[in-house]
Structures are given as C-alpha cells and as structure tokens.
Write a structure and sequence with these properties.
Length: 298
C-alpha cells in the first residue's frame, strides 16, 4: 500500500510469482487504491491476485507480463522489449503486440546460470476457432495422440472487448469471495464485451475443465466476446484420455459458448509471453498460427 501510494513510484514490478498472495488481500484498502493516482503493476501467475482485482475492483489497468528476474537476461527477448515499452503508456494511448516465432518447453536456467535467454526452439502451436466445436469422428478414441486437437484450428478469428484474466489457478480461488466483483465489471462494460485471457500453471486437463465450468456457472463469461488461452505449464499432460487442448475446447463447447477461441497463445508460464494490459480495450486477430493484439487505454 505504501509503495503504490508513493508519488515517487512509477511502477510496481513483481519480484516473482508465488503461492499465497491471496493471504495479503484482506490487508489491502481497495477504496484507497481506487482513489490514489494510478500506478502500473506488472507481474503474472500468483500476481493475478492483485493484477486482476485492480481492474475489477478499482477500474485501474494492470500489466500481465514477466516478473523482474526475466529482465536480467542478456540479450532481451523481443517479448521483454514489448513488456517494458508498456510502462510508458498513459490514458488514451494504444499499443500493438503480437505472438512470437518460437517458445520454450525446456528451460536452460540453472542456479549457476539464472539469466540465460529463453530456449525458444519450439514451433508455434497456436490454433484459432471461430467458435467452440467438437467432431467426434475426428477423435474416435481416448488415445492422447488421437485427441490432441480438433479439425482445423486455422480459422480467421477477430474479436474485440475488454481484456480480463490471468492465471486460472488463482481466478478460481477468487471466484465467489468478497473480492469477486466480476458481475459489476460485466455490467459496467456490457456494451464492450470481455475477451478473457487465461493460462494455467498447476492445473491438469481435468482441473482446467472443472475451473472453466466453475467460472461459467458463476456468470463470469456472461458477456464474453472471445477467449485467448495460453500454453499450460503442464503442456503435454493427458488425464483419462483428455489433453489440455481438448479440456478447453470441449468444456467451452459443452457450456454452449459460441465465441471465438484461441489456444496455445503466447501467454503464461511457458515463455515468451505477450504482455497484456488487463482492463484495456483490445482488438485481437488470429490466423494461421499468428496473433496480434491492439490495446487501448480508454
């Protein structure tokens, strides 16, 4: 609270993710945070506890992007340049970010080499769908390899609305608590719609599916204009024949959600990640494995 309210503070950059940031929330004065001059907060993962509540409780934008240690690598990855550039934005500004040419499944970091660049050697695996769908004929067995995706995945997708989201592990923990003001946010921006950006850390496919069901039943997706889902940290995991991709696509389909969906986006725990301004108004386009996001501070 002291750091956020200090006039000398230009940005609060998280030192890292974590596990129990939720336990800090009862000690925060959100009314004061609403009235103080806005300060950029940047972080991801467990930082969703603060970065998500700033727009939903205080109507203040935050940045979902790498934490401080990532900026120690040499040379910087393009995603770090993109993230750092956002810190200079103010009301009325706009910025465009895009997906990257490769991503990291296995990190080369170690105790002796904590600042090595991303090992971004994996090919992009972005898939885009104009709406959730499932073709049983294309997935006839419970074999993981046979069920890795759905037909296509190269639809031209365009969506616009307020960007809102973060780490799915944290969002389900916030859902239904006294800090849950998503219904009020949805009412405030009903004419804009919401583009949900989501990514998972500790959740396997079945846990992801349960989490999406929970948020949908709580009304969080009532004005959804679309979904951008990042590569999950447990990327290759399969549970009871269900992969991470199928968990998202099948769940949204069976929930009756017909908005556009992008999966395996550059968001979250498998870098690089596109920096996203939570609470901004965004226009998102995807086709043939590429994503662009234009964000406006309006």
């Amino acid at each position: 609270m002291d750091a956020y309210g200090d006039p000398a503070s230009e940005v609060l950059l998280s030192a890292g993710g974590g596990e129990l940031m939720c336990e800090l929330l009862p000690y925060l004065d959100f009314e004061r945070l609403t009235n103080d001059p806005a300060t950029w907060f940047m972080g991801y993962s467990d930082n969703t506890n603060f970065g998500f509540l700033l727009p939903t409780l205080c109507d203040v934008a935050s940045i979902y992007a790498p934490c401080a240690p990532s900026f120690g690598m040499r040379p910087w990855h393009a995603s770090l340049h993109d993230a750092f550039a956002l810190l200079g934005l103010g009301a009325g500004d706009s910025v465009r970010v895009h997906s990257y040419d490769g991503w990291e499944l296995q990190s080369l970091k170690s105790a002796e080499h904590p600042l090595v660049p991303y090992n971004a050697v994996e090919k992009p695996s972005v898939q885009s769908y104009s709406a959730a769908r499932f073709d049983a004929a294309a997935c006839p067995s419970v074999d993981a390899a046979a069920c890795d995706g759905t037909p296509g995945g190269n639809d031209v997708v365009q969506m616009q609305g307020r960007l809102l989201g973060g780490c799915l592990d944290i969002l389900i923990n916030l859902c239904g608590t006294r800090f849950d003001e998503v219904a009020r946010f949805n009412k405030r921006y009903a004419s804009d719609g919401v583009i949900w950006f989501l990514e998972a850390c500790d959740l396997g496919p079945l846990q992801v599916r349960r989490a999406l069901w929970q948020l949908a039943q709580a009304g969080w997706f009532d004005i959804a204009a679309g979904f951008m889902v990042g590569r999950p940290y447990r990327y290759d995991e399969c549970q009871m024949g269900m992969t991470q991709n199928r968990a998202v696509l099948d769940s949204l389909y069976e929930l009756g959600i017909q908005q556009p969906i992008i999966i395996n986006a550059d968001i979250g725990h498998l870098p690089p990640m596109m920096p996203l301004i939570c609470g901004s108004y965004a226009r998102v386009a995807a086709h043939k494995g590429r994503i662009s996001v234009t964000m406006e501070l309006v």
